[in-house]
């Protein structure tokens, strides 16, 4: 079976939630394939995930790792939420969630965001 050939020790599921066009698809494609699409259309999968995810909290166990990602840091002149404001919000959530700012366009912090998330999950389950 797959267990025999699978070279992995762990399989973690990361779910990306957020309003349409915030950059969820591009964060994933940047991380997974180092690809960025300037004109990406929302897909049915993404839309379904958005609906699904509204109820995330009530469907996952309490020990799920939640992380706040502020994307599009390259668009400095259009910033609407300050880093301080976002960090403060993250600090008020349950028992603290990690906050990180990224840009799928210029690559900044994308790798770090996913690594941090994976690290937190790993720490929790081992
Ligand atoms: P989703 O609906 O959340 O999946 O958002 P998409 O990944 O489809 O991105 C929506 C739009 O924002 C697309 O035109 C992307 O090119 C753009 N976009 C995504 N991430 C960034 C980013 O980090 N910086 C900039 N400037 N644009 C981005």
TrEMBL record:
One of its GO terms (molecular function) is GTP binding. It comes from the Eukaryota. This is Uncharacterized protein. It comes from Helobdella robusta (Californian leech).
